[in-house]
Write a structure and sequence with these properties.
- This protein is an alpha/beta fold.
- It has one domain: Vaccinia Virus protein VP39 (Rossmann fold, 3-Layer(aba) Sandwich), CATH 3.40.50.150.
- 37% of the residues lie in helices and 21% in strands.
- Strands 3-2-1-4-5-7-6 form a 7-stranded mixed sheet, sandwiched between helices.
- Helix 4 (61-69) links the parallel strand 1 and strand 2 (74-79).
- Helix 7 crosses helix 9 and helix 8 packs across helix 11 (238-249).
- The longest helix has 12 residues, at 29-40.
Length: 295
Amino acid sequence: MVEFNSGLDIKRVRKQFNAAASSYDQHAVMQKEVGRRLDERFDYLKLEPKRILDLGCGTGQMLALMKRRYRNATLVGMDLAEAMLFQQQAGFLSRWFSRSSTLHLCADMHALPFVAGSFDVVVSNLALQWSISPDHVFSGVQHALARGGVFMFSTLGPDSLIELRQAWREVDPAPHVHPFVDMHDLGDALVRTGFVDPVMDVERLTLMYANLRDLLHDIKGVGAGNALINRRKGLLARSRFKRFEEAYEAFRTDQGLPLTYEVIYGHAWGAGPVQRRTKDAVTIPLEALKLHKKS
């Protein structure tokens, strides 16, 4: 099994997303656009799912899209950050979930707690880039999918935030942007974990900003700050940050400062639940979640 992004501090990831829950929807322009594009890919699949899992559901945008598309399905929104789930239930999307069969669970995508074959669809919008091991996540999804179920996802590729990465590299040897997994490596991981007929493609989206302050504010506002274990601790010297600003200005065009995202889309079909060997794992049937459903 190949481990990617092993330098990520998962506790830090959770802390950042919890802190950003109340500001997430205001700043998640790119995440919402990719979610819409991911949803459109279901147009080409003939599905009538009864149970759908949104892996890394955040404040619930993808869940709302799935509910519009599959009105009779039971949906489960799972996220590492409990504040995201609370925001989802209290925010503007709550009207979708209060009257629908939607359940919420705070859990780690590296240890999916569901019984075998629980879902007909697993969807994940821009969450997998926070994984320390795609193989481990994919294996769990394979286990949770019913035979013939589909896994549809988006994530970020290695050319994402390339301007940010290069500008920091010019002024500070400490890492500021964590590595992202290549599309071909993700496809190989799907095959290794037993998925059938994986389809992968990629596109680039570039957001333009008037200034660096707004750019960094958006990144922080969605909880996507530096979560590397070996990140620089403490405050950065003002002189060094000034040099970083100057380095980023080199990317300015007539439209403003660019921030590029390499967005990877993938889908594959489940071959049926796999045997899991973790003796201490706890699995949850969906019926148990319904007992705790918010009224």
